[in-house]
Amino acid sequence: MSFKRYWVALAIVMIGSFAVLGGVGRKMISEAPPLPDVYTADGQLLFTGSLITDGQGIWQSIGGQEIGTVWGHGAYVAPDWTADWLHRESQMLLDLWAQREGAKDFAALDADRQAALRARLIREMRRNTYDPATNRVVVSSEEAAAFHQLAAYYADVFGSGRPAYAIPRGSLTDPVKQQKMAAFFWWTAWAAHTDRPGSSITYTNNWPHEPLVANEPAPSTVLWSILSFVFLLAGIGGLVWWYASQEKADFHPAFPAKDPFLSLQPTPSQRATMKYFFVVVILWCVQMLMGVLTAHYGVEGGGFFGIPLAKYLPYAVTRTWHLQLAIFWIATSWLATGLYVGPAVSGYEPKHQRLGVNVLFAALVLVVGGSLAGEWMGIEQKLGNMWFWFGSQGYEYVDLGRFWQILLFVGLVLWLYLMVRALKPALMRRSESRPLMVLFLISSIAIPLFYAAGLMYGQRSHLVTAEYWRWWVVHLWVEGFFEVFATVVIAFLFTRLNLLEIRSATRAVLFSTTIFLSGGIIGTFHHLYFAGSSPVVIALGAAFSALEVVPLTLVGYEAWENIRLARGGRSKTPWVSNYKWPIYFFVAVAFWNMVGAGLFGFLINPPVSLYYVQGLNLTPVHGHTALFGVYGMLGLGLTLFCLRAIQPGRQWKESPLKWSFWSLNIGLAVMVGLSVLPIGILQAVASIQQGTWCARSAEFMQTPSMQMLRWMRVPGDVIFTIGAVILAFFVIGLVTGHSYDKPVPSGVKGKQKERALVAGD
To answer: Measuring CA to CA, which of 85, 88, 219, 483 is 20 to 30 A from 261?
Structure first.
């Protein structure tokens, strides 16, 4: 079973896609906004380009993208500093010009004079005075005055604190650092309002929406948004046509009479993986706690129900931990599943494999504990110039310091080594499962390989360079090849249980991987529409991110196939029901893939949509339903599957799993439906009508209606937390014995006992 056509298609997709991703990425980085020396019109130096880079580092060191956003990327409580600076600077210039005409401020002028000053503002703000020969930008005396006023304003924001922004007092008090960070904020706004050379579109493709400087969606943004719908419909039509053209034999494998895992004795390394799954639950619970604190800071930025918690655990820390722990526990569940599956599919336990599994576990504990402690110390400014190496890098999802990042990469390489050792005998054998094994190996290699993309930028790298490589990690590592790896693992588990035929499973995995990656690799660009990128990024991102949604149109079929398996198939084989709830978590993955990744993902993916909602709460609608709904549910399903397979003969109590499963799914739906989604919609309206700055302003976000919607998260959060607590106690009960049904009486022996174990009695 060579599946030659499938392998050729997969190779073409990967080689072609990465050629485009790399080539366009190189062009994007080479055409990034310059870091100029800034002079006033009378020749006075305002600040240097090096000072801008210093300011970027200072912003990163105090939390970076975990305190507000820049170019729309980051956290949601504080403003987008780009949009905020741009609006405040524009308003200041209008007021300064109005005062020179004898008016109190811009609002006091008549309509004709206001229109004339608006036209002047657009003309001056969009004019590009950058001289590449001298690396200089020249600003007017009014712009220089506005810079000094805004620098003082932001110094007060970060020095005195702003509860409405969840920024505690003393976040940044050094006047020199405050001035440098102001230079960085100025530069992000300058790139957003200044036209590229030879173009009428800014360096950020006219983002953010700011009517005062005529920042409106560019024609290419609108055009490619329309075309993305065409690509989506064409892709769905092509996939349905292909699916309908396939011969569908009415074939269902004959399920074995008893659980195949009953005849297997867990190897020492497989037993050693069990502690990984308990750590998964612990990290998950801590991550939820950080999520509760992070959400609460939106309504009480200085504390937690009157407790001044922000003084010791500020928003920037809790959100950093919330995101990092999500990556840690989900990745841990998948990696542990790989370590468990390796010996199961090859039937071979390499020498010292258990030692390797234990060493990797110790490394995991070190990286998790060390990085979390380092992030707190870095954000609290306790690490000095070592913040980048041991503290927080300040980039969302890859916050951990470079030292911990390197250790994690080394751990992933060790994991790959352990995987290859276990799989090698099976890879050498010519068997019907070999193609699936090869794909398993390829996806395993991709995991450390694409995490290494996070090492491709340095402490003083340009923001565009860092954003490009960061999304390789977030999109290609987390959303891309981890999903491919998980798809292969699930296929292995089902074929190992003889619930699926090897040939059909291999064909399905190869096809789904090819289809997913055909849109997913180049689709990385949809994160970079407005991150200082050229217009070609919008075209490619819009087209290929639409194709990412195409495979999700068939997830309903996948879900019902899993439900059929969970119910024991046509044969109603009793032992299959023992795996019912792990499989139901896979059903939830299919549902949230369609809703979270598909529906809510495409809601924000077209360029014109993201133009107005980037950095608003419609983004975490997609983030929560896709990250937890898909990858989190998948991690929990894999965890339960492995815990089930390690002792297949003992029947679990189903009631806790039932309550946990439905509480988690209902809680997630209620949280999003009653709170995050309505907030995002109202923000989108404000962004379209007034500008991005308005949708993120304290004046808008602190209104009674918005506060009420924030409190509406509580019912969903409570239901979700109940489900999580029940699942945590269930996993603990697997150790204490409380999660098992009544044991088989000691007097029952032989065939009778075997039948009881198989049936779960």
So the answer is: 483
